[in-house]
Amino acid sequence: METATARAPRPRATPAAARSAGLRRGLEILGLFSVARPALGVSEVARELGVHKSRVHRALTTLEDMGYVRREPATRRYALGFKALEIGALAGRLANTMGWARPQLRALAARFSASVSIRLVDESDLLVIDTIESLDDPELHLPVGARVPLNYGAGGAVRAAFMSDREVLALARTHGLPRYTAKSLVTPQAFLAAVLRARKAGRAVSDGETVRGSFSVAAPIVNGAGALVAVLVGSRRREGYRAAQIQAFARAVAEAAGEISREGAQSGRIAGPSRAKAPTASTPAGTKKPGKATGVPAAKGPDRRRPGARPANASSPDAKAPSTRGSRGHARAG
């Protein structure tokens, strides 16, 4: 089973005088746990954080006292505790600001026998806030709270389509493009080409690039100003699906994303600016004005967009579960 590599959220800049070193260390320790590393020892944590084992031991003891970690008797290694589960579950419920869109997710999942999720924009990553899972293929399940890196399937291409070409290339070179299958896009140029295709089409298709034998399709959910807020993603097994059927699925996802964007803008459920920057260059076929069907803004060349600008008019018609850790994390995805 393939694993996805995801970056943890970048820390917000805070004046040094306002910081708590002890609290920061505790949170950094919690950020090291992942599906790939469910238990950690003191020495391992000390190496990761570059601090003395005595300080790590004190921090872990405090976290254990508070219920955020627990020590496994057989190995004396530490795992996440029930308080972490409680806080994580609460955060997941509160973070899902788009629960009202569940009918569209259910309809797509039933129509195409697929897993369908909404992934919220968080910096350069996507965070799964709601999902309907296909009962046919647990391997493709992507749980709520999973952080999906930039190059992971069709959703990442749509996310990157709202960045400048320079930003996409810089992120790819800084954080790398992991290989999940033989078809993965592992060079900045190959990934940028996929991003450009997503801009032009107003949606993205990823065929076997993250999970062997599967594909994913994705389309943007935007606010009233045309800025990217979230990405709607559907994934399923490739077996028995022809190219025309994949494109039909992609169109259906784009139409549903447009409906969600339109309903959210009209009702005020999707409001305000997003951190994602909406390019200003000409929009592709497959994109419409906010309030109508939406799509991905296109750029005619590198860096011809300014942050936060409104996209021009046009018309519109992944997938395992990542988690986070300190600077890099590993997890399964669906």
Summarize the structure.
It contains 9 helices and 11 strands. By secondary structure, it is of the alpha+beta class.
How many separate domains make up the residues?
2
What is CATH's topology name of the largest domain?
Beta-Lactamase
| Contiguous uncertain segments of 5+ residues | 1-8, 273-294, 298-334
The N- to C-terminal Cα distance equals 10 Å
What percentage of residues falls in helices of 4 or more residues? 25-40%
How would you sum up the major sheet?
Answer: 6 strands, antiparallel
SSE arrangement, N to C: EHEHHEEHHEEEHHHEEEHE
The shape, in one word, is globular
Rg (C-alpha, Å): 20 Å
* The named CATH superfamily of the largest domain: GAF domain
How would you describe this protein?
With 334 residues, this protein is α+β, with helices and mostly antiparallel strands. It has two domains: 10-89, Arc Repressor Mutant, subunit A; 100-331, Beta-Lactamase (2-Layer Sandwich), CATH 3.30.450.40. Helix content is 35%, strand content 16%. The chain is built from nine helices and eleven strands. The chain has helices spanning 21-32, 42-49, 53-65, 82-95, 102-112, 153-161, 165-175, 188-201, 243-267; strands at residues 4-6, 39-40, 69-71, 78-80, 115-122, 125-132, 147-148, 204-207, 214-222, 228-237, 329-331. It has a six-stranded antiparallel beta sheet, sandwiched between helices. The protein has a three-stranded antiparallel beta sheet with strand order 2-4-3. A hairpin with a 2-residue loop joins strand 5 (115-122) and strand 6. Helix 6 crosses helix 8. The longest helix has 25 residues, at 243-267. Residues 1-8, 273-294 and 298-334 have low confidence and may be disordered.
